[in-house]
Design brief:
Layout: H1 38-43, H2 48-55, H3 57-61, H4 66-74, H5 78-82, H6 85-109, H7 116-123, H8 126-158, H9 166-182, H10 185-211, H11 238-248, H12 257-260, H13 269-298, H14 308-317, H15 321-336, H16 339-354, H17 372-389, H18 393-396, H19 402-422, H20 427-451, H21 453-485, E1 498-504, H22 510-522, E2 525-533, H23 536-552, E3 557-563, H24 569-582, E4 586-596, H25 609-620, E5 624-631, E6 640-644
Parallel strand pairs: 1-2, 1-4, 2-3, 4-5
Antiparallel strand pairs: 5-6
Membrane topology: Multi-pass membrane protein
InterPro entries: AA/rel_permease1, APC_K+_Transporter
Transmembrane segments: 71-101, 130-154, 166-185, 192-215, 235-258, 278-300, 320-353, 374-391, 397-419, 431-450, 456-474
Length: 645
Amino acid sequence: MTSISTPRGPAGSPAGGPAPDGPPGPGGGPEPSLSFPRDRQERHKLTALQGLAALSLDAMASVAYGPEAIVLVLAVAGSAGLGYTLPVTLAIAALLVVLVASYRQVIAAFPDGGGSYAVARRHLGRRTSLTAAASLVLDYVLNVAVSVTAGVAALTSAFPSLYDDRLPLCLGVLVLVTAVNLRGIVNSAKAFILPTAVFVGSILTLIAVGLFRSAPVSTEAAAGHASVLGENTTTVGALLLLKAFASGCSALTGVEAVANAVPSFRAPAARRAQHTEIALGALLGVMLIGLSILIGRFHLQPVEGVTVLAQLADASLGHNWGFYVVQFATVVLLALAANTSFGGLPVLMSLLARDNYLPHVFRLKADREVHRHGVVALAAVAALLLLFSGGDTNTLVPLFAIGVFVGFTICQAGMVIHWRAGRAPGWARKALLNGLGAVLTGVSALVVTATKFTEGAWLIVIALPALVVLFERVHRAYGRIDERIGLGRVPEAPHRDRSLVIVPVSHLSRLTCEAVNAAVSLGDEVRAVTVTHTDPEDREAARALRRDWELWNPGVDLVELHSEHRRIGRPVSEYVRRVYKYHPNTRVTVLIPEVEPDRWWQRVLQNQRGAVLAHAVRRDTEAVICRLRFRLADPEQRPGRTDED
């Protein structure tokens, strides 16, 4: 057998037919899918502004906990340690510049999306690309859970009476965000533009007003709360600064989301995605540096029960309506930051399904350009995490951000190889920039894993290779399917075999008549079979059926299959096996007639004999199964419809 390639017709379509729009089939071939006009497809994709709202919520919301993560680490060194907040933030901002510049190039080089997975797949090999994909999957799932729990935690801090209802609130927010995304990513982007604008505007206003103040205008938010400064202060050493840098890098989660979801943008998709990435980096950098400057200017100290961002709003704007606007905007954005994952992970899962590393169902799209199965799978796993944590943010935070640093490092290393291989003008400078980013993010990943290992990071250390193993097992399964069906090889010349159609019957009716009509149209020979049990009532029913059959005289033999037990599936499958034994070159089709009710609820009235028969024959034989649907709703139309399994 030789390998083949499909001849192409006009516009890239296979000769003799339209271009397949669907994903690979079980063996890698195309599956049928709905096709839509190009303008309708574009209408359900993102503009740059919508992309900023839909894909940047994770990164934007991280300013609520990124600076605080730095302050909490440096607080063990007392006031002297807090003085290094701005230098550490500037280092993180420098890394942010490197990442934005790198992912801008990733978007141009890999316009089909996938981010670090796509880079690693081309330049670092299969195993490394799967590690990158697994790290992104973990980060996206954890981002949903952490964002939802953090938003609900902020809400319960403002309204303590809701504290005991954290888990139902978390699940309610998750259901709401999932429902919005099932409506389409454009609809979700439009829904989130306003809260994103309010949050960014309030933070920038806080920073602008604070820069003109020499002292806090109010400290009411922190009044009466105990300070968490270290009593036995330590010296500010390299290890402490490195740990603060690694903790603060949690503010960089979400930077990669735009590169992962490039196909979600309107044409020209790559250019719009690049503009979105630059805008995201600029806004995030300004907010991080501005908040760090205010922390030093107001000499803020971390206290129990009050976030650093709340203290900054209090010090800059006063304990008035401006303070509550900042807090409310933070609550909303943290709760909605999960939308970043719903925009990026389904696209990544689609790419993995295309490469046979996930089930192909994740490749399918709904009528609003939504990877619906990916959205639902993400929501289901996130719900399990919420149930596991009881809606507690602190249970999930130690697991967060490790995966994204692994993806950052792999992506940066892959881009170094990309520049070296292409050797375009300026490649050395670009490779140096990516190499520096790989070193910085790699060190951060190691530090975060080591410092949070006992706090739950060990789970990520186990889950990451487990996901890689899962991807490989799915890939091997598809490989075996491809081998068995001979995908990509010229098959033998078609030949005609004797065809036998078997029709299971239990009584005479219009349904039986339609089944026999369909059977004689399909096969060279037709046999009706009925299962007879040993009790007198069933034997009498069998004799009545035989008598009616002879009176009807359809020209088709009725074969009685005797069974000592009240089974219908096994006797039919055993009869099919006997046919194969004595007539090995016969093509056997089992045609199962079934009533399709007029109303969906009437399905519970059916005896499910057809499903039992189909399962038994499929499990025990190689016969083709056809299930004839007899419609009750519209007698004017052709009453039968055959679905071939």
